[in-house]
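Table 4 source record.
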Amino acid sequence: MKKISCIDLFCGAGGLTHGFVLEGLPVVAGIDMDPACRYPYEANNNAEFIERDISTVTSSELNSLFGDAEIRVLAGCAPCQPFSTYAQRYELDGRDGKWGLLYEFARLAEGTKPDVITMENVPTVARHEVFQDFVQSLEKLGYSVWFDVVDSSQYGVPQTRKRMVLLASLHGKMSMIAPTVERPKTVKEAIGRLRPLNAGESAPRDRLHVSSTLSDKNLKRIRASKPGGTWRDWPRDLVADCHRSDSGKTYSGVYGRMEWDKPAPTMTTQCFGFGNGRFGHPEQDRAITLREAAIIQSFPRNYAFVAKHEDVSMKVLGRLIGNAVPVELGRAIARSIDDHLSAQV
């Protein structure tokens, strides 16, 4: 076996890295500019966390981190907000701010020439010029590039999360492995055995299993909500003013409950809030907890996100969990890389 070394750019809390680790692909370092990522990344993965803006990282630094590895893998998930359908901007190019992060990724790829490169992002990233430039830059370097939208639920993630996955290799064609599960994992299979909670209550032994409080009106709203239903099921006096207007009537995917026998909706950075999407618990009158959101993102039940002496911030941890690459999707990507390298190298 040749020595393999992986680096995870925009590593976040370590979802992709953890998937790699579970599949036996060693990750030496993760790089992210968010200091809140340090604890979960290093506490759960045998890898160094480097707090840096990716635009300040040099190719020589990455080459040093790769060390004497015979096979190098460069992975990354550039922040998806600029490419999301939720973003209120639709420019097709732009090299500034977050829009330019894929250009930084391309710069580091050119400077390190790893054997394999992988990227994960929202499906709409392919609409933008920056993505096409990224693909073309890899092809000019001699990479065989594959990319497509994959459904995370087909790889063991209990969530309908569709993502663009790119795989590029200097050793011939490669692609994503076939789905690893016969049917999607359901919400009940994922979180059905966790301790029941009321709104605003927390579990005594797991500080992440804590639910947001609900106002009296929102408590009435969730009690009037059906699993898989919408706010249109409510009595008129509970419907928000914004939803009564013509512009608000189309936004049916908020203030909803999940369904036990289906995968969860896509987790977002606000997934702990009842009014932010279909994040109501299927039967308990509350929004899902941070721990439930993490499990739906396929993090192990014992994945540590915050040190014992630190306070739990719903906003901060919601951001880390919602932005993460689902661990099981990370495992599928790692397996795709491993299968390719075993056959070609």
